[in-house]
Structure to design on (550 residues):
């Protein structure tokens, strides 16, 4: 049985998805990382629709890393859906966006985002950020005993 | 009935009276044999009445008296004597006198009434004239009112047209501004994504696959990484500079001491690594501004103060405020390399740099952000410096009430 926390990462940029994946590994975070490339896919995953119906292979995430600018459905729409769904209402949703625009930050916060970060340029900063996020929202069990900095 | 009007001149009146009496005298004298001795005043009576008519009361009475004397003396028996003969002559003398007197008085009275009529007539004419004048003025007024109304209508049409044009122009301006904002937004998102990938992946190459590189290879990879970082800084600074131009600012009372403390905390690592001495002197009063912008401004100014020092020396920065009336001037003085007077205006422009990127790295937008930010909040910004003796940057904002 898989006890590792599940993180859903919704981002349309393949490089960003790869960097988050590598950063998680480098930070020594023991978690299952699932990816969604657009807003609709992210909602389908959380909902458990279609190909994601099998919760054994696609478990409900413990945390969502959400980009704002996504194809088909924007990050705001995904956030709105998650907050309006009884089952996922309290799911931590962390916005990880390129935008440091005040308007985006305020809107995301008003719509119930748990946190808001702009994507760092350096992978070292990304590592540190992901560590901080997991520590705050997922607790201690997320670390391997051999957690490397 | 049209009555004879009095003659205008006094002399003419008496002259006419005399003339009439003389004429009466001559007529009676010519027809004396025909008229006899009893109707001596037949000609003098009409003469004095006519004199009264043309000359008024005094000439009429004068003519009457003259007729009396002449008739009595020349015609009434005994002739060439003033004393009347008998009761008949005396009677005709009296009849002449009183009839004449009555006639003259009557005529005078009639003249008076007439004059009064004349006056009221002239009054009436004057009134009529006035009424006509008013009518004319009223017409003119009505005309000008109509003209005014027309002009007003025309003006209104023009104003409407202008308003429409302004609205159209504003709409199209707004449209292009929105388009521009959109571009900026996409620049923020889409342009930085590949940059992140380049930076992150180069970083991975250097850290996890270092053994595959020789010396120059590592240097190139490092340069790629530095360039990515620089482009990211440039993008975010340009974005910020652009946003400062159109974004709404929300002025409020901001505690500058707290702002400086926050910024100094954010710069703590940087300051320590440069062995800097930063002195925040005394409380800095609260000012009216946008807290986000003023924080960015102080951040930029302090970063510069830490950055622009001679190689090897450590930065020394003093911060204090002077208050004059309701204006607070915040000073940030460093002991750095200073700015020659001829460049002191220039450095606030976008992309204006005085040094090469190797010596003092930067985007060249920091002070442009400072200037635009402070000016958007209604303040002023400037610098005092002698080259080589440090600089004192200042900005002024309105003190919070």
């Amino acid at each position: 049985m898989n006890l590792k926390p599940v993180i859903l990462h919704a981002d349309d940029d393949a490089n960003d998805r790869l960097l988050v994946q590598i950063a998680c590994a480098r930070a020594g975070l023991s978690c299952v990382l699932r990816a969604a490339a657009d807003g609709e896919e992210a909602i389908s995953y959380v909902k458990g629709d279609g190909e994601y119906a099998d919760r054994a292979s696609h478990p409900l995430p413990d945390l969502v890393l959400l980009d704002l600018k996504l194809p088909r459905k924007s990050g705001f729409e995904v956030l709105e859906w998650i907050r309006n769904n009884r089952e996922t209402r309290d799911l931590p949703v962390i916005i990880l966006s390129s935008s440091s625009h005040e308007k985006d930050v305020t809107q995301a916060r008003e719509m119930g985002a748990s946190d808001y970060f702009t994507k760092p340029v350096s992978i070292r900063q990304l590592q540190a950020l992901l560590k901080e996020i997991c520590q705050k929202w997922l607790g201690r069990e997320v670390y391997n005993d051999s957690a490397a900095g | 009935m049209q009555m004879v009007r009095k003659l205008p001149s006094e002399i003419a009146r008496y002259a006419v009276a005399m003339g009439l009496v003389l004429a009466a005298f001559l007529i009676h004298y010519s027809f004396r044999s025909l008229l006899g001795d009893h109707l001596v005043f037949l000609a003098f009576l009409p003469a004095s009445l006519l004199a009264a008519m043309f000359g008024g009361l005094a000439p009429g009475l004068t003519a009457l008296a003259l007729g009396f004397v002449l008739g009595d003396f020349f015609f009434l028996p005994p002739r060439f004597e003033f004393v009347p003969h008998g009761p008949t002559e005396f009677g005709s003398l009296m009849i002449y006198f009183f009839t004449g007197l009555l006639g003259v008085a009557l005529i005078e009275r009639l003249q008076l009434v007439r004059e009064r009529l004349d006056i009221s007539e002239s009054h009436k004419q004057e009134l009529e004239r006035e009424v006509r004048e008013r009518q004319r003025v009223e017409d003119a007024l009505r005309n000008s009112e109509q003209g005014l109304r027309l002009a007003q209508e025309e003006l209104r049409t023009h104003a409407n047209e202008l308003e429409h044009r302004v609205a159209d122009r504003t709409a199209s301006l707004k449209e292009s501004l929105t388009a521009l904002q959109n571009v900026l937004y996409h620049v923020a998102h889409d342009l930085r994504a590949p940059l992140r990938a380049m930076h992150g992946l180069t970083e991975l190459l250097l850290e996890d696959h270092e053994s595959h590189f020789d010396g120059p290879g590592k240097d190139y990879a490092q340069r790629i990484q530095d360039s990515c970082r620089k482009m990211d800084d440039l993008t975010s600074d340009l974005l910020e500079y652009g946003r400062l131009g159109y974004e709404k600012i929300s002025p409020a009372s901001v505690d500058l001491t707290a702002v400086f403390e926050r910024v100094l905390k954010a710069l703590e690592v940087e300051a320590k690594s440069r062995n800097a001495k930063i002195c925040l002197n005394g409380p800095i009063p609260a000012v009216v501004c946008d807290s986000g912008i003023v924080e960015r401004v102080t951040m930029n100014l302090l970063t510069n103060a830490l950055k622009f020092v001679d190689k090897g020396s450590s930065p020394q920065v003093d911060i204090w405020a002077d208050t004059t009336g309701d204006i607070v001037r915040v000073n940030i003085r460093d002991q750095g390399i200073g700015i020659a007077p001829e460049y002191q205006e220039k450095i606030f422009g976008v992309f204006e740099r005085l040094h090469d990127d190797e010596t003092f790295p930067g985007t060249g937008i920091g002070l442009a952000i400072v200037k635009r930010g402070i000016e958007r909040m209604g303040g002023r910004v400037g610098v005092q410096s002698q080259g080589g003796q440090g600089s004192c940057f200042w900005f002024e904002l309105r003190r919070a009430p």
User: Anything to note?
Assistant: Chain A touches chain B at residues 13, 15-16, 19, 22, 69, 97-102, 119-124, 126 (CB under 8 Å). Confidence is low (pLDDT under 50) at residues 145-149 of chain A. Strands of chain A lie at 6-10, 32-36, 63-66, 93-97, 115-118.
